[in-house]
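Submission sheet (multi-component)
Chains listed below:
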Amino acid sequence: MTILNESGIPDVLPPLHAVSGLARRLQDVLVVVVGTQAEAHLVQCLPAAPSPNLPPSGHEPHVTFAVLDPSAPPPQGLLASRIGESASGLRGTELVLLVAGRSVEALGVDAAFEVRLAARKLDLPAEVVNLDAPHEVPGTLSTDLEDGVVAALVNLCPKRRTSDLVQTASPAKRGRLFGGLLGRGREALEPGDARPVVLLGGALSPGAAQGLAAELTRAGVEVAGAVPADKTSELPPFGEGTVVAVMDPNLTAAAAAAERRGATVIKTLMPIGVDGTARFVQDVAEEAGYRTSEVVRARSAWEDLGALRNRIRGKRVFFAGDTGFEIPLARFLVDAGAVVLEVGAPRLDRRFLSAELQALGPDVDVVVSPDYRGQANRIDEARPDVVICSPGLHLPLVARGHLCRSPQDFLRAGLYGYAGARRILDLLASTLKRAETLDSLNL
Amino acid sequence: MRLARGVYEGPQSYGILRTATSIGGVHALLRALPGETYFPTLYGTHERTGTLAPVTLSPLRERAEDSMAPGNLVRDLSGVLRRHPRAETIVLVRSEASLLSGEKIQIDPLPERDARNPNLVTFPWESPSIKETEAAELTLEDLIRAHTQDARERSPYPTVNLFGPPIFGPGAAAEYAEAERLLDLIGVEVNARVPLGADTRDLGRLTRAWANLLLYREIGESATLYLQDGYGIPRVTTPMIGAAGTGAALRAIGELCHLDPKSVQRTIWAELARTAKLPWYARLEPPETFKNRKVAIFGDFTYPLGLGYALAREVGLDVITCGTYLTHLERDFLFHAHTFTEGAFVEDDPEAVAARIEAAKPDLIIGTRLEEGVADALEVPFLPLCPPTANRPFVERPLVGYAGSSVLADALDNVLRWKKPQPTGETGIQWSDEALQEVAGVPLFLRGRARRLAEDHARSLGSGEVTREIFLESRH
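Outcome: structure written.
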């Protein structure tokens, strides 16, 4: 594996596009996007689930725009009152998230103060999500808003009481039901060794956390909850001793927030692909105080995927880079027999993704901050079988005769766990199959 | 500050980019945060031409001079010059975050323009308070000013410049094509299509034309005034929407180009017999179809005015209200709209627009994508004919000209036959008075959805009536 920094301008969908999708997922949350005309227009123009051929989705009732007039910034407290009015007009609101970027700061609006005031007035939790928060490593991913929102939710999770540490039930007791049926070489532990596991991620893949929790339960690990949860009231307790299993490779800010709250963030592979899921389950179990082996399960998962692997074996894939999910996806596809020509990484946090980078095959080139025009030229030269790229590059590349898929398609299909591994290969195989069918037409 | 569920217009940088990227040979250097650059994505998905947007980002970041990565404006500009040697004009566009950050932009003028050096055009009027349409209009004027130094000799035969919508306009290319077809029929050649379809050389040749025809006044207003005042080129501003508007515009062009009025009239009659179906529709449909049918129209400037006039005069519908979101064109809009409606208004808050439309109790709403929810809540048919619209059809249809009048006739024919669905005895759900009071408190654009959810909830409970409790439960 080679890592090259191209210092270019990658084509990345603006992170704010995800706001409608997040509001739809977090049904009891009111999202207030504060900014100028630009922010409101961006959300309105870009669909929540971008596709090169779909019209923008309709208005999401849980999203409100606070459009600031640059010539007359609002007096202190006005934003808080407006948020209050908006939240009280929308029934079932349990949490307010204020999404604010650099323009808000430049106009002299103190988002943190306004949100505290609004929270006090409404008697509801409220948090600021900084759209332009600096990351340790420079660069922007299209999934940065998900990261910010999950980090805000981590901050809102109730504090875990110290007494809980003592009262944690033994894994032998908890794992009894599934243990008898599905035990795979787990070793019994001493009571009191187990630590609560919280899953972090899957914000835009509903049901993803539940699927992964079921996978962990099969291995005997009980999952205390997931962030984001379906409802704000279901956010799991957080604190020292909590084991945090990060599902998404883009959640650097959320993982840092979890660490700040005293939790242990496991450094392992993302639960994407067969080996990724196996390592994830095994390492989470180990950190939580269980011992399990996923070898048998992983082997049978690979065997189940045999036919699909044959369909993508030797296919050449190019990841232009947009969501940050490209590295685990590439790792899995290489394992499954595909040839990955390049993985674009608009931002690459090597420390956070160290396990992933180690597991990436030796023949894969990772290009940090790729230049999208350079990438388009490299794609033209290499003629890959399929390009996974952002909506901005999609149409230009299709026009040049390339077969493209959006990384968001993989996210929506649900790429976690063993079942997700099948869905990834299925999606790719069906894409290639359809292209073959269309190519065979005599137009 | 205001809370809004949406906006009709984008920011000024978006307006500048729409005009600048409509013109061939122009490359934009956009100074913005990486999270603000949605224009290239929209360009790719809207235009479907397969070309990359002629826009390069110069990311706004701290301590850009510390590394060689993009972010230093001077270096980024030389990068654009190096990588896009065919660009004839570079425009520097600043996003809202860049303007608000207060950064000082200092760029040395480019070397004297010759065959290899492009023009650099900056917009000193840029401000976060300006909105999309006004910025697009000012950009067009500035780009034309930058390219028309000397008056060219008038073309030996009659020619006109078409000033139409920029890219992303609904059916923009089709609007130009229809206008050009009609001008060709009366014997006038199009000197340039501006801004969409023009290149920088065309901008230099604009002064050859005998007249300017304004298809889309929002964008072409100040540019055509500049050409009128500076070079004496007269302009025609009648919206070419509906058969009457199109005929008036063609006659005016004929007069300015010294054509034989009888010949122009013969062409108009031939088109009325062949292409224009709106007068046919108005005559064929029984008067009862239009009697007491009230229409609310809302949009930009040209479309609501053109449609309002055509529907009121040519079709005989009652235009109960007609509005625009372009607050900077308030006086002009009200002056024209009062010729066909008593309910002219100017408003850029979608909530207030919804309230206006609701109060007017229309039977048909013609508007932008933001009015769709209002029509849904009021359970009246809706025609998304005014920008911004959400649909991006593969086949573009014009709304101007005689072909456009036929498109309008088809659209009207479809919706005016529409009858409000009456609940049948079996599936109809009654509403209690208390529940109806609660519904009235829901914002208008959400009301249709809230009503449907409550009825579904009542059905799932096996109740034939939506009570206040059922309604409240359905909203959780």
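Remark: The longest strand of chain B covers residues 26-32.
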